[in-house]
TrEMBL record:
GO molecular function, one term: ATP binding
Species this chain originates from: Nitrospina gracilis (strain 3/211)
Residue intervals of the ABC transporter domain: 15-251
Coiled coil: none
Protein name, entry field: ABC transporter related
Presence of keyword ATP-binding: yes
InterPro entries the UniProt entry points to: AAA+_ATPase, ABC_transporter-like_ATP-bd, ABC_transporter-like_CS, P-loop_NTPase
Transmembrane segments: none
Keywords: ATP-binding, Nucleotide-binding
Length: 272
């Protein structure tokens, strides 16, 4: 779809993906991705199951590499920064983390692990770091969960603990990969409300297939389809029934209400 590419201007960028094509096995799962997030922009990455959202996140974090000269650049520099520096500067929330912690780890220790960008604590935590972790839990209204075993928390509680983990080191960029997956509607709304309070003036990437999760703070949308950029640009240009009907292969209307967007109706396109 033409006409949705954002204008490239010489503003500082947080990340830039250039001509990135990615294979998993024999499958070409990302195709010639070009995408730039500038300072001050908050992006939602949206698309159907299997369109390549998680693969794109893995590409950003260097877990997989593009072929044929594709590039990923971070923090306004084309010099390779090293994964450790990137992970230190980026707070990442993924529902997958919920299964990866040891069963004896407390919620407080999960938040503290955010200082080391690690799953689990392999280094000594300083007293000041513990105070900061407790303060972040206070801000998110989850201080009472600090001594609880992380794996015994409800999905909603655990997701807010992971948000505290991502925020505790004051990241330059916050990346949330389907953070509301598995949450019921009231729990999702509590999570989003907590998120809205804590992301003011912070750069954000929010990955989802539910456009109703796109918060007012989101300024831009990257819409993926079958591993390609289908459309990208300012939120109000992309969140339209026309663009989504084509990208989701389903006739939909998109409505805005109270700064949030909602899809109504869905008549799947008939397969040829
Ligand atoms: N390790 C792998 N080996 C082979 N194919 C893979 C691998 N990982 C992902 N894929 C394929 O790549 C495509 C994109 O997968 P990806 O997980 O990035 O999609 P997604 O948009 O995150 O999906 P969802 O919304 O369901 O999480 C899918 O067709 C998937 O089957």
């Amino acid at each position: 779809m033409q006409g949705y590419r954002s204008a490239s201007v010489m503003k500082p960028f947080l990340l830039r993906v250039e001509n990135a094509t990615v294979y998993r096995g024999d499958n070409e799962v990302l195709k010639e991705i070009n995408w730039t997030q500038h300072e001050g922009e908050n992006w939602a990455v949206v698309g159907n199951n299997g369109c390549g959202k998680t693969t794109l996140m893995k590409l950003l974090f260097g877990e997989i590499l593009p072929i044929d000269g594709g590039q990923v650049h971070w923090f306004n520099s084309t010099t390779w920064r090293g994964l450790f520096e990137i992970r230190e500067r980026v707070g990442f929330v993924s529902a997958e983390f919920q299964r990866q912690y040891d069963q004896n780890v407390t919620a407080l220790q999960v938040v503290e692990s955010g200082f080391f960008s690690s799953i689990g604590l392999w280094e000594d935590v300083r007293e000041t770091q513990t105070r900061k972790a407790e303060a972040e839990m206070d801000h998110l209204g989850i201080r009472h969960l600090a001594p609880r075993r992380f794996l015994q928390l409800s999905y909603g509680e655990a997701r807010r603990v992971l948000l505290a983990r991502a925020l505790v080191n004051r990241p330059d960029l916050l990346v949330l990969d389907e953070p509301c997956a598995g949450l019921d509607i009231p729990t999702r709304e509590v999570f989003l409300e907590t998120l809205s309070r804590r992301v003011r003036n912070r750069n954000l990437i929010y990955v989802t297939h539910h456009i109703e999760e796109i918060l007012p703070a989101i300024t831009h949308v990257l819409l993926l389809k079958d591993g390609r950029v289908f459309a990208q640009g300012k939120k109000h240009d992309i969140l339209t029934g026309e663009a989504f009907s084509e990208a989701l292969e389903c006739q939909v209307s998109v409505q805005e209400n109270g700064g949030r967007f909602w899809i109504t109706g869905c008549r799947p396109h008939r397969k040829q």
